[in-house]
Amino acid sequence: MCLFCDIIEGKIPSTKVYENDYVYCFDDIKPVAPVHTLVVPKKHFDDIRDMANSEEGSKYMGEVIKAIDEVAKIKGLETGFRVINNCGADGGQTVMHVHYHVIGGIKLTEKMI
Ligand code: AMP
Ligand code: ZN
């Protein structure tokens, strides 16, 4: 069982921002900024390492970048935003289906952490 696969399949409700054949994008349930949207490949990859080592990983990564741009436009993030990927236990990943946090709507600090 995977939480994000269930969200993609509509078994668990979410607030959709954008969707196409390759990605599903929805608002994070615990936003850390006025805009906090998750960009999730519809194909299950555990994390960025799994993507890198899968035949279809590059295709989906290209779609992720395009979806990030779509989300930024939909959310009105013309002046910029931050993209975060947490990878593995030490990276703070809590949902083991790769995803990219698009965070913005506020001037973010230049510090990474
Ligand atoms: P990460 O810690 O990078 O694995 O991020 C997982 C993110 O998923 C967290 O920011 C959670 O708030 C978010 N999250 C967990 N459950 C849900 C849910 N049902 N709907 C939307 N976002 C969720
Ligand atoms: Zn999954």
Bound molecules: adenosine monophosphate, zinc ion
**What structural class do you assign from the helix and strand content?**
alpha+beta
What is the beta-strand fraction?
A: 15-25%
Q: What integer is the average pLDDT?
A: 97
**What is the CATH architecture annotation?**
2-Layer Sandwich
Measure the end-to-end span.
31 Å
Q: What is the radius of gyration computed over CA atoms, rounded to a whole number of angstroms?
A: 13 Å
By CATH, the topology is HIT family, subunit A
Question: So how many helices?
Answer: 3
* CATH class descriptor name: Alpha Beta
Strand order of the largest sheet: 1-2-3-5-4
The number of distinct β-strands equals: 5
Number of domains: 1
Q: What is the string of helix and strand elements?
A: HEEEHHEE
The proportion of residues forming helix, as a percent range, comes to 25-40%
Q: What is the CATH superfamily label?
A: HIT-like
What characterizes the major β-sheet?
A: 5 strands, antiparallel
Q: What is the global morphology?
A: globular
What does this structure look like?
The protein is α+β, with helices and mostly antiparallel strands and 113 residues long. It has a single domain (3-104), classed as HIT family, subunit A (2-Layer Sandwich), CATH 3.30.428.10. The chain is 26% helix and 22% strand. It contains three helices and five strands; from the N terminus they run H-E-E-E-H-H-E-E. The protein has helices spanning 3-8, 48-52, 57-74, and strands at residues 16-19, 23-27, 35-41, 81-84, 100-104. Strand 1 and strand 2 (23-27) form a beta hairpin. It is globular, with a radius of gyration of 13 Å. Adenosine monophosphate is lined by residues 3, 12, 14, 28-30, 86, 92-95.
